[in-house]
Amino acid sequence: PYEHELMEQYGCSRMTVNKVLTALAESGMIERRRRAGSFVARQPPHLEQVALEIPDIAMEVGSRGHQYGYRLLQRELRLADVGNAGEVELAGSEMLLAMRCLHLADGRPLALEHRLISPVGVPEVLEVDFNTTAPGSWLLQN
Asked: Residue 115 — very low, low, confident or very high, per pLDDT cuts 50/70/90?
């Protein structure tokens, strides 16, 4: 989509959209072509996937001098969506822990996190109280 469409869809500024697209381009996930747009990058055959960092949103918010907040909006144990190849690759026929979380800065919404974790790969995840701990922070610590 065009940048202005992304701005409308996500309710953010053009600068924010541009920063995200720049980060995706720098990580090799998209190619930006002047006057043509942004496209999903073709990966070399030897490169199976681009590894992304798990951001520590709490630390980011605190480092900017704001008060961090967090809310777990949804948590469910479910099978992978057969129409979603990434979910099937992650879980196969096993269950996934699916969560949706809201991160806040000074009480205002900052980021909506959609997190999928395979209990097969990380069995202890089923015992964690994500009402008080953000999944990204927990993954970084564990």
From this structure: very high
Written as six digits, the tokens of 81 are: 């969506």
Mean pLDDT value across residues 22-46: 78
Q: Residues 29, 40: contact at Cβ < 8 Å?
A: yes
* Residue in 119, 127, 125 with CA at minimum distance from that of residue 139: 125
Whole-angstrom Cα distance, residue 129 to residue 140? 16
> How does pLDDT run across 9-23, given as a tens digit for each residue?
888 898 998 899 888
Contact indicator for 17, 30 with CB cutoff of 8 Å? no
What is the Cα 112 distance to its own chain's centre? 8
